[in-house]
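Thread: quick sanity check before group meeting

JM: Hey all, I'm pulling together slides for Thursday and realized we never actually wrote out the predicted structure for the chain we discussed last week. Dropping the sequence here so it's in one place. If anyone has concerns about the input, flag it before I start.
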Amino acid sequence: MKRVLLTSLVLVLVFSLAAGFAAAETPKRGGTVRIAGQWGTITNNFNPFLASGQNAPGTRSALYEPLIFVSVLTGETTPVLAVSYEWKDNLTLVVETREGVTWSDGAPFSAHDVAFTFNYMKEHPALDLSGIWANGLSTVTALDDRTVEFKFESPNTPLFQYIAHTLIVPKHIWEEVDDPSAFTNSDPVVTGPFVVGRFTSQAVTYQRRDDYWVEGRPYVDQVVYQATRSNDSALLLLLHKEIDYSYLSIPDPERAFVARDPQHNHYWWPVTNSNILYLNMSKAPFSDTAFRLAMAYAINKAPLSEKAYYGVVPVAHPTGIIPGQQETWLDPSLADITYDYNPDKAREILAEAGYTWDSSGALVEPSGDKIPALRILVGAGWTDFISMAQLISEDLKAVGVTMVIEQEPWNSYINSLMGGTYDTAICWGTGGGPTPYDLYYRTLASEFAGLDGGQADSNYSRFSSAVVDEALATYRASSDEQEQWAAIAAIQREVLTQVPYIPLTYRTDFNCYQDAVLIGWPTEDNPYSGGNPGDELGARFMLLELHQR
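JM (edit): ok, ran it. Output follows.
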């Protein structure tokens, strides 16, 4: 199926009032969805402007709603508080809002709430976590009760997903809040399908709204998000049927979970990103393209998946593009560049570039200096990354390279990445979104590379390419599908030939559920939630779809 790009010029996407759900026989109503996904205790805070994790789980799924949901898996869009949008000349975005929506206190929702939300973020920059106003947005105006106009100082069409995903707040409530960053919003007024019921530090209960704007939804009476002590604790709750769903990782889910009750226990781990081996190009030997290319051939990636993720998470594509986006975005002319495991090929590349080996088999640079032991950085205690690092270290012995694994706690780990003090490091792609632009922009743009010797905000390899920067600028300034595709293709070629990083395995969300009581869960065959975990935007669709067996 051909997918519609988010930024098609003068294309208006008009969505059905049913918000993307197909008509079907009315499911059985009632019951409770029980979810565990947060360690420790739950914060008594329902402020939707805060980063995920700083507010109570469910704030972003059960309570507040965005304009449009954009699936990171496919780039497809589903309407929520908006019914259409239109780009005009790449500098003006016009959004039509939905009629018939009311806030939970009975006040009508309108385009004025939308305009207020964005201008409130401008007034309080700490709320603008996605940097919408810092990246070209100029004005947001409600033209009437149903129409909002977004104007930009310069073209930046990829901002659409961040605009689309901004949670909308009621003007008549928040205009009285002078310090929104400190506002805990204990009695939230929302457009979403639930309202806050009972709160404790161990569980928060949301009650179904009878006046929700999607007729007949939700089917369940309530949703309970409960705290848990660990991933293992969540697994035990699932196995004992004390919860219905968790978005925490379960090691070896086939054996530890599904096999215990194959009829009812299931999981869906959708790929949303890649785990990457970053190479610090600010220092030798990683500044040499031939060395980086040889590393790509020397690493056997299939065992990484087996040891770190029990074979559940596949090996990543060498471009880093995730499966759901490959049909649309992969350049078929580059299909032969795969870096299949081939240590002989790696040695050949090194020899042609002037590298040699001493009597002990250690790799020697063209300058005659022996390459010292190289470090591979991982987070302390991160068993999946540690497992991968061990295998990579063994693989590189075949080309005469010794690797030393360094484990660092989070603060030290991220400082090493951003400060450029590491040699190699396993981390995730620093950008993610409905198209490969988001990955490539954050991971490869020169502006994030700390090229002046400063901090690398997200381009940890400190890679710089005029081709990549120009292609990213072309993509930003355009809403033409073919022009955007060509820009992404140009970046793919640079990734495959210059090897600024090495994709290892894909990275997934962890949806595990048991359906003894409730059915309608998102699956690989029916990925309506975009794979979002239970306290993110896409989980709203899951809460609307679930019903009693």
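AS: nice. The two ends are 31 Å apart (CA to CA). The CA atoms of residues 208 and 424 lie 49 Å apart.
JM: adding both to the slides.
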